[in-house]
Amino acid sequence: MTFLAGEPVAAACAVVLLSLIVPQVLLTAWFAWHVRRRSRGLPGEEPARPESPPVPAEVVLCLRGADDQLPDVFRCLARQRYAAWRLRVIVDSPADPAWRVAHDMVAGLGENTTWSAAVIEPLAARPDTGSLKCASLRQALLTLAPQTRVVAVIDADAVPHDAWLASMVEECQREGVGAVSGNRWYEPEADSLAGTVRRLWNAGAIVQMTAFGIPWGGALAVRREAMEASGWTDVIRASLCEDTALAAPLARAGWRHRFVPGLIAVSDDDRIGTWSLTRWISRQLLTARLHHPLWPLVAMHGLATSAALVVAGGLAALAAWQGRPQAAAAILLALAVYELVCVGLVLVIERTVAAAVAPVGRTLRPVSIPGLLWQAAVLPVTQAVYAVATLMALGARSVEWRGVVYDIVRQAGRAGVRRR
What we know:
alpha/beta; Spore Coat Polysaccharide Biosynthesis Protein SpsA, Chain A; seven-stranded mixed beta sheet; 12 strands; single chain; 13 helices; three-stranded antiparallel beta sheet
């Protein structure tokens, strides 16, 4: 940048912007390598050795409200290619619309299911501390069948493939693995602004969650012995969510969490507004703030990147106003390079996910030039939403989730929530 020898501020700004690219490129390259390696199986790693007969498992589905995808979730669970499992459905209350949907689906499926039993029950107690979802899950965990060795948790909008349960149980049998999970990939059907922002943000989030070992509760399985050793049922007593809260106690108990690329759930939901999305992202980030030790890195990424872009844009405008075209052009060029590289990284992540889910029958749309241009245009909006959501998560004293407001509290040295 010799042509900016007399413009130290502009040169420093350009260098900072370009240097921000390096860790993101390295992390994305690691993610692509890690997912492809996991999809093939790790060379030299002891393979899973499922017991015979099959390991008894229970699938827990906690419901509050009837998601549009809920009937599909029941249909796909009924087709699971696994022989030894029970379905536990915990509904917020008999008055909840999910109560009727659950009963109708179980009755309608009749004997065309692979589960040995399906139990639908209401949430028996509504404690003041912890989220209602954690209360529902805890109710199921404390009343597992004696023979159950693996507990799987699924979200009401995460439609599983036919080998979903079998693959989780098998992966849980690996030496030292206490829990396995997938993640979510958003493929908005209409490419709305908010849907595309969620897709772009989630592309970065899936890399961070994999790198930081953050489980995802939409497709999560835990060994019973790891659950008991980690004290998971006690941890979620006051927690906002069950998945992020699992990582630290699991590691302290000497067990590993394993990300399984084939468990990535693809969602085409496009019905969300920009403000609702910002609040949704803020809640996802808040779970990391409350329950994960690497939250400072997540917050730093969300704020530092956006702050650098805002400062760079301001300096470019100032340089142009002061009649310094070279400085303004250099900063704008660095901004353009940064944004284009970010779009390229999203493309790499997308193709990596596409390859991971293809073996289980999931497909992503082919890449198109209009699609890439649309993503490039929406990326600055995504970065702005990410920054706002991070600030909201940092300053949050309460959170609303499915119509319930929770205050953030600390109990026994741990962050948690209390229902208003």
